[in-house]
Write a structure and sequence with these properties.
CATH superfamily of the largest domain: Medium-chain alcohol dehydrogenases, catalytic domain
Helix content: 25-40%
CATH topology of the largest domain: Quinone Oxidoreductase, Chain A, domain 1
Radius of gyration: 20 Å
Order of helices and strands: EEEHEEEHEEHEHHEHEHEHEHEHHEHEHE
Number of domains: 2
Number of strands: 17
Bound molecules: nicotinamide-adenine-dinucleotide, zinc ion
Distance between the termini: 14 Å
Number of helices: 13
């Protein structure tokens, strides 16, 4: 089968690789209809992770069941499914308590709980930027979708960014009527903004410097804050009578940069502490890593990021972090899509065939104007 393979910094190619197949009775093989390129893939693409060359990428997958293992009960060939990016065993303590993103069993990497498809340090699993994908513990991991091809571009957001944006809002301690500032207007940040609006925020701000992303934020009724035009903290304080917002969502991650493009891993955390009110909450879904060999400072190379912890404590704020447990939200979000209450597909800017993936990566990585979210359709 054909698949997108990591070949080294800023190099991916479409290669012939061994077919995905049933390896365990609990497996399903999914024929991929849509698989997305994610901002998380760019950390690998830019050579800022330890991902090995030859890895098949892709953790945002959906498609149709092609083959089922003998122990699978709930799915059969032909079923349309969304595949959460997390791979859970379904029976460890974290899976049983709704934290499938920290499954203690599926990731053999020393010191790491939580597994995913096609991702650095998240276990030996191939990704789904390919014609087929092997899904372990399919009864636990897969989500059923209505048959047909309706809502394909909305449903494809259920594997990661829509639940992740929702989780960022959840981790912030959000309550109806809150004012929310989302840092990062990439796909995850825009999904956090979409989630906060659906959940009844009184006002949502989206901070970024990319005009196309800020335009999209405005289109869904959020207030854009352009950090290239002045200190975003001051802009947020000015817009909230000096009080600050109730909740903040971090949707940028450790490659946060200033308006000149220089990286400062602590920048967004500091901005959040300064712009969220006392006793307010911060949800961090932007990724931070325990080791970043490509970082510019020795501290950051070890994952140590000096940030305004003193101010954070003094303001009595709270913070939640980590990979999103997609399963906790994807059923409800699917039903909001079916009911027409959520339409995350508005974020899609490009739909490409698998062969065009290298081009898609390059444009999306350059944050080129208009390249907000790239979908690949392997069977097209
Ligand atoms: N926790 C999870 O489960 C999970 C899931 C998916 C993605 N992620 C992570 O979420 C983050 C965002 O993902 P994405 O797909 O939207 O990525 P992206 O790279 O497309 O978007 C990041 C955005 O942040 C903006 N940005 C950079 N510095 C900024 C600053 N100082 N202030 C405000 N905005 C700034 C960039 O201009 C860009 O638009 C990444 O770190 C990704 O790895 C986490
Ligand atoms: Zn993703
Ligand atoms: Zn588990």
């Amino acid at each position: 089968m054909k698949a997108v393979v990591y070949q080294g910094p800023r190099k991916v190619s479409v290669e012939e690789v061994p077919d995905a197949r049933i390896e365990d009775p609990n497996d399903v093989v999914v024929r991929i209809t849509t698989t997305n390129i994610c901002g998380s893939d760019l950390h690998m693409y830019e050579g800022r992770t330890g991902v090995e060359e030859g890895k098949v990428l892709g953790h945002e997958n959906m498609g149709v069941v092609e083959a089922v293992g003998d122990a699978v009960r709930q799915f059969k060939a032909g079923d349309r499914v969304s595949v959460p990016f997390n791979i859970g065993c379904g029976s460890c303590r974290n899976c049983l308590t709704g934290w499938s993103s920290f499954c203690t069993r599926m990731n053999p990497t020393e010191g790491m709980d939580g597994a995913a498809y096609g991702y650095a340090n998240m276990g030996p699993y191939d990704g789904g930027q390919a014609e087929y994908l092997r899904v372990p513990f399919a009864d636990f991991n897969l989500l059923s979708l209505p048959e047909g091809d309706e809502h394909e571009n909305d449903f494809t957001m259920l594997s990661d960014i829509f639940p992740t944006g929702w989780h960022g809002v959840e981790l912030s301690g959000f309550q109806v009527g809150d004012r929310v500032a989302v840092f990062g207007g990439g796909p995850v940040g825009l999904m956090a903004a979409h989630s906060a609006m659906i959940r009844g925020a009184s006002q949502v701000f989206v901070v970024d410097r990319q005009p196309d992303r800020l335009r999209l934020a405005e289109k869904i009724g959020a207030t854009p804050v352009d950090f290239s035009q002045g200190d975003p903290v001051q802009q947020l304080l000015d817009a909230t009578d000096g009080l600050g917002v109730d909740r903040g969502v971090e949707a940028v991650g450790y490659q946060a940069h200033d308006h000149s493009g220089e990286e400062h891993p602590e920048l967004v955390l500091d901005n959040l502490v300064a712009s969220v009110r006392t006793t307010g909450g911060i949800g961090v879904v932007g990724v931070y890593v325990p080791e970043d060999p490509g970082a510019s400072s020795d501290l950051a190379k070890e994952g140590r990021i000096p940030w305004q912890y003193g101010q954070f404590f003094t303001k009595g704020q709270s913070m939640g972090t980590g990979q999103a447990p997609v399963k906790r939200y994807n059923r409800q979000l699917r039903d909001l899509i079916v009911a027409g209450r959520a339409t995350p597909g508005w974020i899609v800017s490009h739909e490409l065939g698998l062969d065009e993936a290298p081009d898609g990566y390059a444009h999306f990585d350059a944050r080129e104007d208009g390249w907000t979210k790239v979908l690949l359709h392997p069977s097209a």
